[in-house]
Amino acid sequence: MSRTLVQPVGQKRLTNVAVVRLKKHGNRFEIACYKNKVLSWRSGVEKDLDEVLQSHIVYSNVAKGVLAKSKDLKAAFGMDDQTKICLEILEKGELQVAGKERESQLSNQFRDIATIVMQKTINPETQRPYTISMIERLMHEIHFAVDPHSSSKKQALDVIRELEKHFPIKRSPMRLRLTLPQHNFDSLAGKLNEWKTTIVSKDESGNQLSIVCEMEPGLFRDCDALVRNLQGRSEILAISVHGEGDILHTEDVSSSTKQQPIDQLTEDMQKQTLAPKTTKLGDQAAVKQNKCSTCDALMGDAKEYREHFKSDWHKHNLRRKTRQLPPISAQECMADVQLSDSKGDLDEYSF
């Protein structure tokens, strides 16, 4: 009995991979990536393509190891450059995940969206925020579905607009300090009344007038432009104000990053303090110090040294290092992150 030896042709089998799939021109194209690297690439954290792709090869089926045909690549992408096609699939393709993993991701994103909605809205009758469980129930009632390809902040804005149509809920106001010459105040006062702005306090200093007021976040851009035209300046005191004097989220943009008090640091950042461990009297061997060249800082034992590489401080300095910027301290890093988040909130929440 004759036996025929059959060997696969044009196959390269890969295991333990994350697959990104893109359907184009009637064909399916896939690339093999390392797990947890695709999202890092899309968010801009990972810059090295070799750290994301297991191979610069386009497949028609990664699981079976079937390579995509050159003529199909040219018909769909207009070229057969594997690396450039991999980049396009990486940017536009759909990441394939298991059912339970996808369900967990959607559940976590749903919770994140509900949290943002809670922080940015109030009950107009009580001027207080709704609870997170109440927000989630309202989101279910409007049949909201999470879009995994859209940011949580953008979807939170859409949710707020939809909730305002059916329930007593509105955007919480932001608190500003407006400083301008007194003789220009009349021009500003008319607009403030038109915008239904609440004036909290007024302070006169020489020929300058300082006003603390609360207004709708969507009016900030117009207000800032008007104040600048009146030779004044605007300062953000709080992005979201809940209740009378109950500021849940305050970002002082004008303050120097070096003036941020240490007690404002998060618990994770506090763990990264650089105080060396003291040794008992009589100990002959000193505690071994490990230095992080990226952050230019000394750590204690090996465990603390490993934990440092997982911290937001180290990751922030890594991004600065790629831009040829010097490292900053833990306190400055926390203030820098808070300032960046504050400006990002203004860009996404002003409409």
Automatic annotation (TrEMBL):
Principal place where this protein is found?
A: cytoplasm
Outline the extent of the Ribosome maturation protein SDO1/SBDS N-terminal domain. Answer: 16-102
Biological processes per GO annotation: cytosolic ribosome assembly
Query: Which terms are listed as keywords in the entry?
Result: Cytoplasm, Nucleus, Ribosome biogenesis
Q: Which Gene3D superfamilies match?
A: 3.30.70.240, Ribosome maturation protein SBDS, N-terminal domain (3.30.1250.10), SBDS protein C-terminal domain, subdomain 1 (1.10.10.900)
Ranges of residues in domain Ribosome maturation protein SDO1/SBDS central: 111-171
Note one Pfam family from the annotation.
SBDS_C
Segments forming a coiled coil: none
Q: Where in the cell is it found?
A: Cytoplasm; Nucleus
Classification via PROSITE patterns: UPF0023
> Does Translocase count among this protein's keywords?
no
Q: Which domain of life is it from?
A: Eukaryota
Any one GO CC term of this protein is: cytoplasm
Record-annotated Ribosome maturation protein SDO1/SBDS C-terminal domain positions: 174-236
Matching entries from PANTHER family are given as: RIBOSOME MATURATION PROTEIN SBDS
The similarity comment for this entry is:
Belongs to the SDO1/SBDS family.
User: Assembly and interactions?
Assistant: Associates with the 60S ribosomal subunit.
Concerning NCBIfam families, the annotation shows: RNA_SBDS
Q: What is this protein called?
A: U1-type domain-containing protein
